[in-house]
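Colleagues,

For the teaching module next term, I've prepared a clean inverse folding example: a structure given as tokens, and then the sequence designed for it. I'd like students to try predicting residues themselves before seeing the answer, so please don't circulate the second half yet.
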């Protein structure tokens, strides 16, 4: 079977909404365009707009599972984001200018006892991905199916918050890509590392409730990893249906 792209997703505000794409243009040395372009710093964070910061500096699904149920849409021309959540009214705002409106909207989704969100951070030209390099997350649908089978329940792929989903490879074969180049559509990506998972994956992306022992299930495979992190070494267009080839 030929491996192909089955899904493209970006997450404009880190941990605050997913957006489906039909195609995108990858650029050398950059994250997927508009992916994690903004992040939400909490009251204990020292994150600034000057440089990349680790995920602990931000409000995220691992500590606030209700955030998992947010969906998002970016209007690139106006730098406007629309957020939707089953328990909140729709919000359309400009993250660079309307932080107060967003903070008022998101605070009811935060659990008691957690550091509250206080500002939106944006580092020009650098998505706030978890990896310490501009990364794109590649996910294998067969590995997802293997987790579903082992856990004994249907799981949304959105628990893994991946950028590019790939149909065709054998389960867990993506781990063998580390250190290799992958051609996806017109672009070439170099796979650098596996992705260790956290409590964020236990949250249901439709309801925001923790309802699956994803980490315990991954343990039965001998690891807590799902997906791999890659960097763009040759830019180009990528679309759903494009061929994927290990070079």
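(Answer key — instructors only)
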């Amino acid at each position: 079977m030929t491996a192909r792209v089955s899904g493209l997703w970006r997450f404009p505000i880190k941990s605050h909404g997913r957006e489906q794409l039909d195609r995108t243009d990858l650029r050398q040395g950059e994250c997927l365009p508009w992916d994690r372009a903004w992040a939400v710093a909490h009251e204990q964070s020292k994150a600034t707009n000057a440089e990349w910061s680790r995920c602990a500096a931000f409000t995220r699904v691992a500590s606030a599972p209700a955030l998992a149920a947010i969906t998002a849409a970016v209007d690139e021309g106006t730098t406007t984001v629309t957020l939707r959540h089953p328990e909140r009214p729709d919000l359309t705002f400009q993250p660079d200018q309307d932080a107060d409106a967003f903070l008022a909207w998101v605070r009811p989704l935060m659990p008691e006892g957690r550091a509250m969100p206080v500002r939106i951070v944006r580092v020009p030209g650098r998505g706030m991905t978890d990896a310490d390099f501009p990364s794109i997350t590649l996910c294998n649908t067969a590995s997802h199916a293997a987790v579903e089978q082992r856990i004994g329940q249907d799981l949304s792929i959105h628990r893994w918050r991946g950028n590019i989903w790939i149909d065709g490879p054998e389960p867990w074969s993506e781990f063998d890509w580390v250190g290799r180049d992958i051609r996806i559509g017109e672009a070439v990506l170099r796979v650098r590392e596996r992705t260790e998972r956290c409590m964020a994956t236990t949250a249901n992306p439709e309801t925001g409730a923790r309802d699956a022992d994803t980490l315990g299930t991954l343990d039965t495979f001998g690891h807590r990893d799902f997906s791999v992190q890659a960097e763009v070494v040759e830019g180009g267009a990528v679309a759903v249906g494009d061929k994927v080839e290990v070079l």
